[in-house]
Design a protein that fits this description.
The protein is mainly beta. It has 3 helices and 9 strands, in the order αβαβββαβββββ. The protein has a 9-stranded antiparallel β-sheet. The termini are far apart.
Length: about 180
């Protein structure tokens, strides 16, 4: 996992730093994806418009080939420890924080998020739908589109489990 100042992520949750100012080691939104240490990369998924259907089959390409594809295509770079960086036009455009990256902020609750950021524009339910059956609620998502921040909280504990920085399509998830 990249060594970074955990206070930066804590400040993001506490609404004391803008997303555009957040730095995770050398990684920052808007920077060229070459700022990512190659030894931190677990996988790269490239979205190729030439491929129909499921678009994340990369097993026949090396990491070098996928990095070359990112020169012209959009994709997602998965890092050790649970950070995903979305790349578009060779720039990092979005983050998804999970697993070890969430450890410094996992104690924050839904109530903390509301205290720091106010009421969300809307709240969504992230649940698995298979064949029309709802199996489980993974999280409730507090959505702040103006800040490009989404806080995922555990349905039982109310604690923060994930942070995403992309626009969510409210039509694909149900509102809480």
């Amino acid at each position: 996992m990249i060594a970074f100042n955990h206070a930066n992520l804590i400040s993001l949750v506490q609404n004391r730093v803008l997303l555009s100012e957040l730095e995770i080691g050398s990684i920052q939104l808007g920077k060229h994806y070459h700022c990512i240490d190659l030894f931190e990369i677990n996988d790269i998924y490239v979205i190729d418009p030439e491929i129909e259907g499921y678009n994340f089959e990369n097993s026949n390409k090396t990491i070098r080939e996928r990095l070359t594809q990112l020169e012209t295509l959009k994709g997602h770079i998965h890092l050790a420890g649970g950070l995903v960086c979305t790349v578009e036009n060779q720039r990092i455009t979005e983050f998804r924080f999970t697993k070890k990256y969430m450890e410094p902020v996992a104690h924050f609750t839904r109530e903390d998020i509301l205290k720091f950021h106010g009421e969300p524009d809307y709240e969504l339910v992230d649940d698995e739908l298979y064949g029309g059956f709802n199996y489980a609620i993974d999280s409730y998502i507090l959505v702040y589109p103006g800040k490009k921040l989404n806080f995922h909280v555990h349905p039982d504990t109310g604690k923060l489990v994930e942070i995403t920085t992309h626009s969510l399509d409210a039509s694909t998830l149900r509102r809480r």
